[in-house]
UniProtKB/TrEMBL annotation:
<dbReference type="GO" id="GO:0071949">
    <property type="term" value="F:FAD binding"/>
</dbReference>
<keyword id="KW-0285">Flavoprotein</keyword>
<keyword id="KW-0274">FAD</keyword>
<dbReference type="InterPro" id="IPR036188">
    <property type="entry name" value="FAD/NAD-bd_sf"/>
</dbReference>
<dbReference type="GO" id="GO:0016491">
    <property type="term" value="F:oxidoreductase activity"/>
</dbReference>
<protein>
    <recommendedName>
        <fullName>FAD-binding domain-containing protein</fullName>
    </recommendedName>
</protein>
<dbReference type="InterPro" id="IPR002938">
    <property type="entry name" value="FAD-bd"/>
</dbReference>
<keyword id="KW-0560">Oxidoreductase</keyword>
<dbReference type="InterPro" id="IPR051704">
    <property type="entry name" value="FAD_aromatic-hydroxylase"/>
</dbReference>
<dbReference type="Pfam" id="PF01494">
    <property type="entry name" value="FAD_binding_3"/>
</dbReference>
<feature type="domain" description="FAD-binding">
    <location>
        <begin position="6"/>
        <end position="329"/>
    </location>
</feature>
Amino acid sequence: MAQPLKVLISGSGIAGSVFATNLLRAYPTAAITIVERSPALRLTGAAVDIRGSAVDIIKWMGVESEVRAHTTRESGMQLLHANGKPIATFGATGRSDVQALTSEYEIFRGALAKIFIERVRGRVKLVFDETVSSFEPSADGVAVTFTRSKQAETYDLLVAADGYNSHIRGLMLGTPPSAQVHEENAYVAYFTTKDDLLGGSDVATGISTTLGRAMYLRPTAASTSGTSVLLMKVNAKSDTAARDKLSTAVREGNESYKQLMEEMFADIGWRAPEVLREMRQSDDFYCSVFAQVRSPSIQSGRVVLLGDAGYLALGYGTSLAIIGGYVLAGELAKQALSSTAGEASSTQKEKISAALKAYEDLVLPFAKTQQGTSGLMQLVTPQTRLGVGVRNALFGLVSTLKLDRMGMAISAKLGFTEKKLAMPEYPWVE
């Protein structure tokens, strides 16, 4: 690429900042602009984990020690009866190649996003309170019109890292953004309490009872005194009334959803009254629907989808965002470093197109293998007393006999480790 690459990234989250960091390493002269719809960096969110190839990438990027320094310290998960009596405890494995429910890299989304964005802040143009309104292919690349400023500018590449409801994805595919969103009939709320409800314990503790209701208390980072709370409501597939009620509350906002949580969780026992009172005092409450994004394509012309915008997967979304950002930058690096100063602009277009196609061919099939169904969620979060009883008996047996530990040890011995994407060696500039 003879001329400095001019890139616009929509979204300042994990996917966009990982991509920007790696692209600048491969192509230091790239001119990168990041637009973020929020008025400031969004450094909140639930705990996320890092698995598979994403672990290799954070090590390669030199941020593993910083990530570990900001982990939640969670060492395992414990399921309780409503009276507080333990049912089962599942510990972390202590290794990154075979991980349990609790990852070796359990970290809050905001802390991880900050680690990545700080590596490029000052090297990119960061614009807040702005989004992409529309775009059109042009002779020089892609002409983008912004929502707030109404200004138009042309870029060599438009990267959509704008989340699972990606406006850019809808424009690229010519469909409503919801057309690629597959809801899993499960709804979640996250918030942090003011006090430490775990009493210093680093084991996540909670209950899961009838009607698909689950409440978990999880440890936070060492620098935080409170407790992270997860409220989950999984509906029976036939329960359209509950789904509609929850969907409406999510759309209406936090106050509506809090009222619904008070209604739905008031009678589950354990520490529900205390947790619901803490919910009212929290200042970081967030609610959402569990969903996956299954886009048939993640690139078209000079527009490319990254992270949740193209391939959100339950439980693996953060790892896919890291992997996608690395691969997209790597494929562009291959093309950038194979260019010569005298190449025509038409060849530059071809090289960008080739990079985007290679990225799609690598990442999209891998992402699809990580996208499960809601069946497992229904099994582990049952609706009926019978279902809860069977689940508790099974979990208790597995925990007592340490079958989970045995299974993971055997898997490791046989080479069945965390699934990884076979990535080529990229010609990074040191």
